Amino acid sequence: MANSDKNISSAVIKRLPRYFRYLGALKAKNITRISSKELSEQMMVTASQIRQDLNNFGGFGQQGYGYNVDNLYTEIGKILGLDKRNDMIIVGAGNLGQALANYQSFNEDYGYKVMALFDVNPKLIGISVRGVKVLDTDELENFIKTHGIKIAALTIPKDQAPAIAKKMAEWGIKGFWNFAPIDLHLPDNVTVENVHLAESLMTLTYNVHNREESENE
Which HAMAP family match (predicted)? Predict the structure, then answer.
């Protein structure tokens, strides 16, 4: 397990879910062990990088054996907090919010549970998305406090996101999965993971066009 006194770099943390995903795929193929070299060939990162990353949390490997896939998958899951119950809400029940609620892997693969969706649109309030009800945003404060919700996905317009996020942080939300195309400025004890879809797409188009130009030179 991780040493809470160590400062683990954000780059290492961002690689952990990728390790978890690859190990899950190996488990599904009934592969019981793998070396850092074999894992590096699949993930396209160096074996030394894998060993350095995992050594931040204790290593887990055995010389001459490699990694026990099931054990490493379980331990990384614990580091990521997936061994705990992770209830969440989605604020914004439009197309994107409903798509997230319909994403089966939240429950089936990673143990997240969408407890409710929230919206201001009267046409959406009261409907169910994969068995999860859309509630009026007026109920947000009471729902967060009553159910002890710590994680929220924001799929609302950027002009609404800062104000509602500030209130939700005051009500107890500790982590935002932010799909609104705006940066949120919240207290230091609140974590924000931004998912700016347009920026990701622009990065993709840059790389496509830059590669084409290089090939044509």
Answer: Rex
- Domain of 100 in residue numbering reads as 86-199
Please check if 93 is assigned to a binding site. Answer: yes
**Do residue 140 and residue 195 come from a single domain?**
yes
In a domain, 20, yes or no: yes
**Does 77 carry a binding-site annotation?**
no
The reply to whether 114 and 136 lie within a common domain is yes
Please give the backbone phi and psi of residue 86, each rounded to the nearest 5 degrees, phi first.
Answer: -120, 85
178 annotated as belonging to a binding site for a ligand: no
Distance linking the first and last C-alpha atoms of the chain: 50
User: Is 97 labeled as ligand-binding?
Assistant: yes
For 36-66, the DSSP string reads: HHHHHHHHTS-HHHHHHHHHTTT---BTTTB
Would you say residue 5 lies in a domain? no
Query: Residue 148 domain-assigned?
Result: yes
94 is in an annotated binding site: yes
Output the pTM of the full model.
0.85
State pLDDT tens for residues 66-118: 899 999 999 999 999 988 889 999 999 999 999 999 987 776 678 889 999 99
Domains contained in the chain, number:
2
CATH number at residue 49: 1.10.10.10
Strands (E), the chain: 33-34, 67-68, 86-91, 112-119, 128-129, 132-136, 151-154, 175-178, 191-194
The response to whether 96 counts as a known ligand-binding position is: yes
Q: Is 155 helix (H, G, I), strand (E, B) or coil?
A: coil
Q: Are 3 and 47 in contact (CB under 8 A)?
A: no
